[in-house]
Amino acid sequence: MANIHSFESLAALDGKGLRYAVFFTGCPLRCVYCHNPDTWHKSSTDMSADELFRKIKRYKPYFKNGGGVTFSGGEPLLNAEFINEISPMLKAEGIGYCLDTSGSVELTDAVKTALDNSDMIILDIKFADKENYEKYTLGDFSMPLEIAKYCTAKGKTLWLRTVVVPGINDSADDMKKYAAYVKENGISFEKYELLAFHTMGFFKYEQLGIENKLKNTPALSKHRLDELQKILDGELNVTA
Amino acid sequence: MAENKNAWRDFNLGVWCDDINVSNFIKMNYTAYNGDSSFLEGPTERTKKEMEKVHSLLIAENEKGGVLDIDTSRVITILSHGPGYVVDKDTDIIVGLQTDEPLKRGVSPFAGIRNSVQACNAYGYEMSSKIKDEFKYRTTHNTGVFRAYTETMKKARHAGILTGLPDAYARGRIIGDYRRIALYGMDFLIEQKQADKEKLAEKEYLDEETIHLLEDLAKQIEFMHQLKELALLYGYDISKPAQNAFEAVQWLYFGYLGAIKEQNGAANSIGRIAEFLDIYMERDLKEGRINESQAQELIDDLVIKLRLVRHLRTPEYNDLFAGDPVWVTLALAGVTGEGKHMVSKTSYRVLNTLYNLGSSAEPNITVLWSDRLPEPFKRFCAKVSIDTDSIQYENDDLMRRLYGDDYAIACCVSAMKMGKQMQFFGARCNLAKVLLMALNGGKDEIAGDQIAPEGKPFGDDILSFDEVYNEYKKYLSWMARLYVNTMNIIHYMHDKYAYERLMMSLHDTDVERLMAFGVSGFSVAVDSLSAIKYAKVKPVRDERGIITDFEIKGDFPKYGNDDDRVDLIGKDLIEYFYRELCKTPAYRGAHHTLSILTITSNVMYGRKTGSTPDGRKAGEPFAPGANPMHGRDSQGALASLNSVAKLNYACCRDGISNTFSITPDALGKNEDDRISNLVTMLDGYFEQDAHHLNVNVLNREKLIAAMADPTLYPSLTIRVSGYAVNFNKLTKDKQEEVIARTFHQAM
């Protein structure tokens, strides 16, 4: 059984083609800029692999063109064993899956299997240095790197993502640091995209009665995001 | 047919040469096109000049409150008005206007004189006493209907359980096969009708239906001659077949023009013409008579004329069909029965008019989608949707099974075989209100009148699903019988007093008739039943003892989330209602069909319906067509599509309309992704035997801004319910309803 927060039947941005996104609950990170604090704790929806598989299978007609399921969260890799249970069912139907992860889990055998069987992985690069990583999240800086290196070694399709927060990691220097981190560690990736910090999840903090440490931080403008993406691409020698 | 030698030069000959068989002609002669859109040409200088005139006319029309001018001096018919041009005789290529000036509307009181008088008054005009006098001695369709209506019919109509019926306006939804004029010329078509008539007269016993048909044929032939005269007014002789692409377009358009001068039906569609016309274009291109730019110009000019079609309507009519639509529905693409796709270069040229002339609600371009359409064409359609929000998609793989490979779409979603089937249009009944009536023992929950037979009263306890559904079904059966009989009266009278002489002359004489029923409030009824089944719903009564509200405790599954618990209630409900309709025979041997389509009457129907057990409050709009209720489809776009896809087209073969709005950001990161994703989405939806999808790719903010300042987006076109409208032409309450709809967005 897995505890599930919600579903989004059309998540065209989280992977290739049309995606059916499954949001698991539970995440150890507590990033200050999290826009889904409602996934931190358990919901009332528990599902067996079989139940979830039947739900996903309904969307098979839309999974051409590289589409499939995206396991997101929360932290999907906390449910690696569950994913490994559902994975052969999906495979038998020709449905591939993508993992949308923060990488802040231990690289256990179950996690390795879940990564091995996936079509692709979207990995959050939250910060390029230990100090900030530990300042803004409760995670272990080394874990995502281990995951990234494992994916690279296995030749997995990897997309990297970084949420850019005004006043925290929105300078040109920050972009240089991210690029250096990726290069120095020899992470091979297909795409590295920046996401803008937004305030649309703020109401959730109020609803849940959780302190929102960034309540005075504005959203990052689309314009600035595009500028930063260009700088990052330049550092990475990527042509847009 | 020796005299056709030149007109038919280089065509592959076949059975179409001896009998009217346009479908056979197309299949033997069309050129399938597998390439992309790169061959397309922009507008010519001439087209631009004509469009400048059109723009200034549209601005003037808008400034005058929606109606530029009305000719109140005479009744509009085929020959009532002399030639008229958009720019002038030399500039217009394709010629012909309804009256003598563009956008000037004619008065056509055959369906109802009172409506025409009111429509004139609403725009500050007075109908001439000449017309009023003429109609003193003429029975209109409306008068005929009300002579025969029973008291129950009038009550049901007044209460809003049966509304929008074509009993005071012309029924429309009939598509003349205008292609026949281009291919065969009028003389041959007239000869055929005369032969049919003579053959019919040879019958030993002339029963009522035969006499009826004999008179129909005489009327048809009379108007076929009038159409020839109309063409002569513009200097063209259409007795013989078209000799080239220009004539093919012009001949076909004359047929359509004559039809809309004679009739002002709710929807007068033009049919499936692109692939037919392409055969003439290809021949002219090969012969070097025209180049691509000229081929496009012909289509552009035809489309300009189609965009200028106007009818005179009352404000009440606008409540049902908002935005001044005429539904010049133009169906294109699709696949032949042999499995070959029918995309031609002219399919592209028609879509290209949305770039050359700007986006527009008319003609209502309908892509007959199949997984077998060539990939570049699918992608071009998706691009046009994303750029213009002006086209709709219907499932050819589904419709071809029932209608063959030469059908077209009338209005929004009504399929019919070109020239072989016609439809008796029947608006819709209000499923949500019938449920409230069942709960109230046959009383109208608003006025309190007893409308349906008295039923078993419900107590004040929590409602039991089984009891409610049983009682609901009894009232649905009552409703079905009343509905069919009401329609029988309407169409008997329409045939008698407002028969579509020209349109029917472009059909086979032994035409197959479909009687199209419809429902509104579908998602409200379904969610209400689900609430009663899965939550705890208690009735709340007013001082009259009538249930006017509900206390709802607990949650319940809602239609639009791909949840069988509720979706299958909807499927069962609609199948039951269809079976009940079929139990009462339809006028003139028509086959019963059913649609889940509201056009924009979902707002008006909602206004006439009390609070419902799903939590919707009295007066609030329904969702349009088969759409899930606004905002209740919370699991994203595909879940919403999957719910609608479960409905059974076999019992809703007049169409299942779904209008879908998604923000560009949710559809994909860049244009290429958006196009691929939209194509994949359409393929996936239709693969599940879903019927129809209106696609809007836009942000809600844009609509809100346009509502506040219409000058920001003067030609903002959106798909609403089986058709497109200019957003600025909608009334405020309809704009609000459109804005309240679910917009699937990126999280």
Task: Describe the protein in words.
The complex is a heterodimer of chains A (240) and B (747). By secondary structure, chain A is α/β, with parallel strands linked by helices. Chain A has one domain (2-236): Alpha-Beta Barrel (TIM Barrel), CATH 3.20.20.70. Chain A has helices at 49-57, 80-92, 109-117, 130-136, 142-154, 172-184, 202-208, 222-236; strands at residues 2-8, 19-24, 46-47, 68-72, 97-101, 120-124, 157-164, 191-196. In chain A, strands 3-1-2-4-5-6-7-8 form an eight-stranded mixed sheet. In chain A, helix 1 packs across helix 2, helix 2 (80-92) runs parallel beside helix 3 and helix 6 (172-184) packs parallel to helix 8 (222-236). Chain A is globular, with a radius of gyration of 17 Å. The N and C termini of chain A lie far apart (42 Å). The mean pLDDT of chain A is 94. With 747 residues, chain B is an alpha/beta fold. Chain B has a domain at 424-656. Helices cover 44% and strands 12% of the residues of chain B. In chain B, the strands form six sheets. Chain B has a six-stranded mixed sheet with strand order 4-5-6-16-15-19. In chain B, strands 3, 9, 10, 11 and 14 form a five-stranded mixed sheet that branches. In chain B, strands 1-2 form a two-stranded parallel ribbon. In chain B, a hairpin with a 5-residue loop joins strand 12 and strand 13. In chain B, helix 16 crosses helix 19 (522-534). The radius of gyration of chain B is 25 Å and the shape is globular. Chain A binds chain B through residues 6-13, 17-18, 20, 55, 58-59, 61-65, 67, and chain B through 562, 635-640, 642, 662, 665-669, 673, 676-677, 679-681, 683-685, 687-688, 744, 746-747.
Look at the structure and give the CATH class of chain A: Alpha Beta
| Structural class by secondary-structure content of chain B | alpha/beta
Overall outline of chain B:
globular
Q: Report the total helices of chain A.
A: 8
Number of strands of chain A: 8
Shape of chain A: globular
In oligomeric terms, what are we looking at? heterodimer
User: Would you identify the CATH architecture of chain A?
Assistant: Alpha-Beta Barrel
Average predicted local confidence, pLDDT of chain A: 94
Spatial separation of the terminal alpha carbons of chain A: 42 Å
Query: Strand order within the widest sheet of chain B?
Result: 4-5-6-16-15-19
Give the helix level of chain B as a range of percent.
Answer: 40-55%
Count helical runs of chain B: 26
The SS-based structural class of chain A is alpha/beta
Q: Kindly report the average pLDDT value of chain B.
A: 95
